[in-house]
Amino acid sequence: MEITFKDVSYTYQPNTPFSHQALTNMNLTIRDQEFVAVVGHTGSGKSTLLQHINGLLIPSSGEVQIGSFVLSKGQKKQDLKKLREKVGVVFQYPEHQLFEETVERDIRFAMENFHIPKEDIQPRIMEALAQVNLEEEVLAKSPFELSGGQMRRVAIAGVLAMKPEVLILDEPTAGLDPQGQQAIMDLFYRIHKERGTTTILVTHQMADALAYADRIIVLAKGSMLMEGTPEQVFANPDLLAEANLDMPEVLTLLNHFEERFGIHIAYQRQSAHDLAKEMIEKLRET
Amino acid sequence: MVAIEFRDVYFRYNEDTPWVLKNFNLKIESKETVAILGHNGSGKSTIAKLANGLLMPQAGEIFIDDRKITPTNVWEIRQKIGMVFQNPENQFVGTTVRDDVAFGLENRAIAREEMLRRIQESLQQVGMEAYENHEPHHLSGGQKQRVAIASVMAIHPQVLLLDEATAMLDPRGKKEILATVLSLKEQLAITTVMITHDLQEISIADRVIVMNKGAIFKDTTTDKLFNSHQELQSIGLTIPLSVQLAIELEQYGYPFSTYPLKQEELIETLWKSHLKM
Amino acid sequence: MKSYMIIGQYVPGHSFIHRLDPRTKLMIIFTFVFIVFFANNLVSYSWLTLFAFAAVLLTQLRLGYIIKGITPVWFLIVFTLLLHIIVTKEGPILLEIGSFAIHQGGIERGLMISWRFMLLVLVTSLLTLTTAPMEITDALEMLLGPFKKLRIPVHELALMMSISLRFIPTLLDETEKISKAQASRGVDFRTGSMKSRIYAIVPLLVPLFISAFKRAEDLAMAMEARGYRGSEGRTKLRQLQFKRIDYITAIVYLAVMIMFLFLRQ
């Protein structure tokens, strides 16, 4: 689904001494089946932006369009539930949303709320479970008996089982160890490719933005500072620094390499093995 | 002097669960900076809680500053060993920064004048003196953790123990904490133990202990750690990019005496060998 | 985040009222609550109203904001008024519809009681608007200090209160976060039958309780690690000190109240 923000502003607690404008005149288009990374320092408006996409927040002014749904302040009340069925959200620390007695019932929960036909539910549970790489035995267990990493997978399975067309990921790897982070990101990337979901990833890990995103949106103080392909965005270290963001490790390394040897190597998602090979080949040419 | 010593320690949470630590021995010298590395469930956090007397071993002995921890002296021991926990939110007791730092001092019956002095001193040590009257919900995760460190430092402990203190922070928060720990190490020469699964953090340690399945898997200096990269990978630890590249480059005849954690080091070593070729 | 608003939420400031010692404010409000009940004629009511509005002015807060803060209790005030109008059968009849009559006494009494009620709400909301919750806690701990001799755990209660205050924003954020997560999973908190709405609370409450217990456990461990073991032998950072403005306020308040006694019938 295509997502468009037209002049969207959002103010928390308007008309009080605590009033705070979190988004200012945001204009943005996310194309169908695109993988977009939204990066920005804490307080840059990332969460506020995300919450407009499934109608958790309605713009104070301007308009958000998600597929055929239009959200704006004047708009009459519509069935947000239909929208939310299509837009799956994996919140930060999603394991905090688990509440059912068994894993199975928790995965089932969203599907039942969205009135998915009964006969579809069981196959979808099994499919989601396989996608997040959990064994069938966990279905009968209480989610609270599981390890933290497993709990997160259960929560993610509950969102994937909805088969959303848009997948919003709010720092889905926060707090995991490096191995767990890699596994979760690979999982989402696979879903994105297989199902053609429009994917919006909010992250602090520039390496993830670089590795997975077609396009990166950089937010600072509630406005868009910059957008473009990873190559374009990371070619602007000064603007990134202004947004309090780092360069991905691999790019700083290649920059160091270039400064020292005067040799430019373009990063095209090569593995360490291929990068080393390329370095050596270019060193031998000189 | 020995700051922390575990002698033949056995620990498990329940009688019907497996041992988390089994016949565990560890010695950390005074003024050392040690990183204890391992993935979730390797027993690394249990070590921290035992060292602080929050848990008691089923068998074996634990010494802090050559004094054995017993149920009767645990309060004095805790003055020697200050602990920072993982979740920044759940260890902030006071309603403002200064109240939080004061909490530990009040518990120790420090006189008010001295309290005010120490609050200033410890907030300066972590660079939070400008936030004295801030409330916790107006601070970032990294700032809250710095306050937690200040709260511990105000007690003047001999050991600073960080139990995954950066796991819930964003990259900027992590950097803040590392810079803070590094500056404390330089200013005060305090014994520092960092329990972590983040390889970036070991760069400021002198010594690294890798835990696996409740036992010490590797005990070595930081620069020698990645000499055994294959073993580390076999227990599921991720190797940093600069080390990965160094390993690859070696196969093309560029030698590395130690595998570099820092990118600059990698490039410099490569440059030097390149000049010789 | 932070889209919640609490009745009489503290607004930081440096007005005269803000600078008063919280104990002074507490004692004034405590006595005012009693005194309001002794008002019995228009003049004495007006006098107290004048006092209340003078206090409002001194806070330097926008009147609109203060009134908005007490809107949730308007309903109660109007309800009280109507109740008295209907129930009281005193004085001449003003209006009669069938068997239902409105008496002058009902209107008078209704107005008086609801006016009293409004003064109470207004003045207490001034306390919370101008005093940080922690200051109120300190003031209570000090004012109740003598009760320690009666084995009332004043320190523990104050600590509990301060920790609760400290975690209110955390728990509110968390409530909002979980309710948004569940709304994204198709829970509808706003529409539907009473039964389905009550049912919708479960996915919110269970995670909240679990997380609150986890936090309590973590916090207890952190407090223990930092050497907490009850009120015995503790020192205290927070100290309260009466200043000149407190003495002046006390004298003025006393004068206002003596005047009030003369104005009553």
What does the model show?
The complex is a heterotrimer of chains A (286), B (277) and C (265). Chain A contains eleven helices and ten strands. Chain A is an alpha/beta fold. The longest helix of chain A is centred in the middle third of the chain and has 18 residues. Chain A is globular. Chain B has 277 residues and is α/β, with parallel strands linked by helices. Helices cover 36% and strands 22% of the residues of chain B. In chain B, helix 6 links the parallel strand 7 and strand 8. In chain B, helix 3 crosses helix 4 and helix 4 packs across helix 5. The longest helix of chain B is centred in the middle third of the chain and has 18 residues. The termini of chain B are far apart. With 265 residues, chain C is mostly helical. Chain C folds into two domains: 182 residues, no CATH class; 77 residues, no CATH class. Chain C has ten helices and two strands. Chain C has a two-stranded antiparallel sheet. In chain C, helix 2 packs antiparallel against helix 6 and helix 7 runs antiparallel to helix 8. The longest helix of chain C is centred in the C-terminal third of the chain and has 32 residues. The chains are: A alpha/beta (286), B alpha/beta (277), C mainly alpha (265). Chains B and C meet through helix 2, helix 3 and helix 4 of B and helix 8 and helix 9 of C.
